[in-house]
Specification:
With 172 residues, the chain is an alpha/beta fold. The protein is built from seven helices and seven strands. A seven-stranded mixed beta sheet has the order 1-3-2-4-7-6-5, sandwiched between helices. The N and C termini lie far apart (30 Å). Mean pLDDT is 92; it is low at 2-9.
Length: 172
């Protein structure tokens, strides 16, 4: 699913952000032609509002598929960063974080720390079970966010106002 929007400062070249939604349930629904993804669409909508083109892909909890699709998004030179959604919990099937963190050349530890701190203030202990993470893969930011819409909303409030700075710093 691709949505395009040109930026005000460069109307000819869009800035692209990948959104990789990791969920067995949503991947099964997508195979049946049903787009039941809420959190990925939320990220897509908010990025489009601030001038980014987005590519949203839904995949199952399979490390090989996650890695292949993430690298596919990052192999596109117009992709400035990627958000993964889902797979940050502690259940056996939550494999996003360990899959993606193995690919990090650098970690951006403060983002996960702040999201857990904010979550703890809002909902208490369950927020500490999130393994929300961020780092650089191929020199570009990758944000591993929980799948819950409320957690994504909090993450977007933290990341989006600072996204161009994060992307710019990562590119230096």
């Amino acid at each position: 699913m691709v949505s395009a929007m040109r930026t005000a400062d460069n109307p000819e070249k869009p800035r692209r952000v990948g959104i990789l939604v990791v969920s067995d349930t949503l991947a099964d629904a997508a195979k049946r032609g049903i787009d039941a993804d809420v959190s990925g669409k939320m990220i897509e909508r908010e990025l489009n509002k601030i001038g980014y083109e987005t590519v949203r892909i839904v995949v199952p909890n399979d490390p090989r598929i996650i890695r292949r699709k993430l690298l596919g998004l990052l192999n596109d030179n117009q992709t400035v960063c990627v958000f993964t959604v889902g797979g940050t919990g502690i259940s056996r099937k939550d494999v996003t974080v360990e899959t993606v963190e193995r690919m990090f050349s650098k970690r951006i530890s403060g983002i996960g720390e702040e999201l857990r701190r904010t979550g703890f203030r809002r909902i208490g202990f369950p927020a500490l079970l999130s393994r929300t993470s961020a780092g650089l893969v191929k020199g570009r930011p990758v944000f591993c966010l929980p799948g819950a819409p409320s957690a994504v909303r909090v993450a977007l409030r933290l990341i989006l106002p600072n996204l161009s700075t994060i992307v710019q710093e990562a590119g230096k």
